[in-house]
Design a protein that fits this description.
The chain is α+β, with helices and mostly antiparallel strands. The chain has four helices and nine strands; from the N terminus they run E-H-E-H-E-E-E-E-E-H-E-E-H. It has helices at about 15-20, 35-40, 90-100, 130-155, and strands at about 5-10, 20-30, 45, 50-55, 60, 65, 85, 105-115, 115-125. The strands form two sheets. The chain has a seven-stranded antiparallel beta sheet with strand order 1-8-9-2-7-5-4. A hairpin with a 2-residue loop joins strand 4 (about 50-55) and strand 5. The longest helix has 25 residues, at about 130-155. The radius of gyration is 19 Å and the shape is globular.
Length: about 160
């Protein structure tokens, strides 16, 4: 049986792109129980309120909500439990160094299947000010208007 090499998006954190400037991204594996993977295959995951914590040289994702698998009786885990992320030691040390700088934080961006493995894309981010958010909204509106005008002229 061949492995599927494509990627399938499970959850996306659009709010992170609105609230932060993403400087670097990392792909991390995640430690899960069997019923959690089955629930993820059904697309039952939310990372809107989740955040990344680095504790004693290990990286954890906290408040990532994975609905309990409906057929998984006693093997179901707590939906909001702390889950360990799997990164190389050099990547963890780089994240620790950057987060000690003022204004940097680590946020989860998306959860997806890479083949048969569940991956989490995390980003090293700087917080946006209110005027930066307004500027991004104005640029997006201008782009949408320009595309709309371009479509009208083609017809």
């Amino acid at each position: 049986m061949a492995k599927d090499s494509g990627t399938k998006l499970i959850a996306n954190n659009k709010k992170a792109y609105h609230d932060y400037f993403i400087d670097e991204t990392y792909e991390a594996g995640i430690e899960l129980a069997g019923t959690e993977v089955k629930s993820l295959r059904m697309g039952q995951c939310s990372i809107k309120e989740s955040y990344i914590s680095i504790d004693k040289g290990e990286v954890y994702i906290i408040h990532m909500h994975i609905n309990p698998y409906e057929k998984g009786n006693i093997f179901n885990k707590d939906p909001l439990r702390k889950r360990k992320l799997l990164l190389h030691k050099s990547e963890i040390n780089k994240l620790i160094g950057k987060t000690k700088e003022k204004g940097y934080t680590v946020v989860p961006l998306k959860v997806y299947f890479s083949g048969s493995l569940v991956k989490v894309e995390i980003g090293l981010a700087r917080g946006k000010k209110l005027y930066d958010k307004r500027d991004d909204l104005a640029k997006r509106d201008q782009k949408r208007e320009a595309e709309r005008d371009f479509k009208v002229k083609l017809r």
